[in-house]
Amino acid sequence: MNVDVIRLQLNKYNQGHLLKFWDELTEDQRNDLMDDLLELNLAEVTSYFSHAVESFENNNKLLDDRIEAIDDDAIGSSINCDLDEWKKYENMGLNEISLGHVAVLLMAGGQGTRLGVTYPKGMFDVGLPSHKTLFQLQAERIKRLETMAKEEYGKCDGIIWYILTSEATHEPTLDFLNKNNYFGLRKNNVVAFKQGMVPCIGFNGEILLDEKYRLSKAPDGNGGLYRALKVQGILDDMIKRNIRSVHAHSVDNILIKVADPVFIGYCLYKNADCGVKVVEKSQPTEAVGVVCQVDGQYRVVEYSEISKKTSELRRASDGKLMFNAGNICNHYFTTDFLRNISNEHEHELELHIAKKKIPYVDENGVRQIPSTPNGIKIEKFVFDVIKYAKRFVVWEVARKEEFSPLKNCDSIGEDCSLTARRDVLALHKSWLLKAGVKSIHGDVEVSPLLSYAGENLTNVPDVIEGPKLIE
């Protein structure tokens, strides 16, 4: 497209500065900048700034007078579920897997910056005896489930593993999976696709330049999933493969029950089109969002959106926190629900705004690294779709069995490799003791290929000395 035509469009939206250095650029640099500009939906992107202003104005408005707890008929619990119910849900989930109707949607766009590494989080090794990475642990849980479904129902058409990456993690992720032969999964059952990027905007409403020939951009958040599903043909692929049930989760939970058949079975039994797993909040001030109702609609409310007084409210019946359903980024969707969101509601999703220190090119063409926030990054969150569900359910699980996020370097002391490793080893120790082991010394890990959730641990010795991998 002619640069003069682009210039007219940019000026219309007060973004003419993006071509300020055009005459100084090489031909290759001009092509790079033109590619960035042609990808822009200027009307949409520039509207983000007005949303940002509105968001800042609403930042201190609390929701105390508008929130209610989850309806009793919308929440189930693996903690209080009796064995017959548990088996019923598990069998429904395993049957869905055996028929080839289940996909996993792994959100793996984040780099391990807070962990102190420069590669994708999924490639991180927390130091278990096996030294398996997050990617390997999750792939092997999928493989074990395929085996379980085949043993139970005589066949298994496989679980499709969709992996949402970002510009920064896409190629390293593919290279890592390919190098490791997809950890035993069928290559055609592993599909990686990239989330979108959104331009960063200065406080004056102008899109920032990262270089004279390149816009400053950031990933559009895990809520960018819904646009990426449509734009990159993943929804079409799901429909072609006859996928009905999708388990979506973030990469950094080392205890994740990938494609959990009990959770899937519960959602199927309830005829849910959208479901979430939650854990009980450890304390009123724990910095996690809670699943609740706002103005009669289900949503996730951030801890900063309710007062300390409201966060401390307790139920008269059992003394538990009134708002205790901690969100852990663990979701069930039907394919029909995802299609409806992507086609009808994606453009309506709430924008989440963060003030950031964003490198930029100043008016003299010099790249600056700011010491204070100078602009905004815009994200959409995966959980903001639950208000569109026709039948929404919540499944409560035990934190010690299903939730241990890996976010920080070890010096922080929480949500780090130390705590992740500790939680995995503690869980596996409980499995082995239940299976008949009398004594365990040192670090002992159970391979996901042997046991998905503590089953299949037969002929175990009385005493196990670690470090050791049971496989």
Helicity, in percent?
25-40%
Radius of gyration: 24 Å
Ranges with pLDDT <50 over ≥5 residues? none
CATH class: Alpha Beta
Strands of the widest sheet, in order across it, are 2-20-12-15-11-3-4-5
State the total count of DSSP E strands. 24
Structural class: alpha/beta
Count the domains. 1
Classify the oligomer: single chain
CATH superfamily label: Spore Coat Polysaccharide Biosynthesis Protein SpsA, Chain A
Pathway: Nucleotide-sugar biosynthesis; UDP-N-acetyl-alpha-D-glucosamine biosynthesis; UDP-N-acetyl-alpha-D-glucosamine from N-acetyl-alpha-D-glucosamine 1-phosphate: step 1/1
EC number: 2.7.7.23
Family: Belongs to the UDPGP type 1 family.
Organism: Microctonus hyperodae
Description of the structure:
The protein is α/β, with parallel strands linked by helices. The protein has a single domain, classed as Spore Coat Polysaccharide Biosynthesis Protein SpsA, Chain A (Alpha-Beta Complex), CATH 3.90.550. It contains 13 helices and 24 strands. The strands form eight sheets. The chain has an eight-stranded mixed sheet with strand order 2-20-12-15-11-3-4-5, sandwiched between helices. Strands 1-13-14 form a three-stranded antiparallel sheet, with no helix packed on it. A hairpin with a 5-residue loop joins strand 17 (360-361) and strand 18 (367-368). Helix 4 packs across helix 5 and helix 7 packs across helix 11. The longest helix has 20 residues, at 134-153. The model has no long low-confidence stretch (mean pLDDT 93). Belongs to the UDPGP type 1 family.
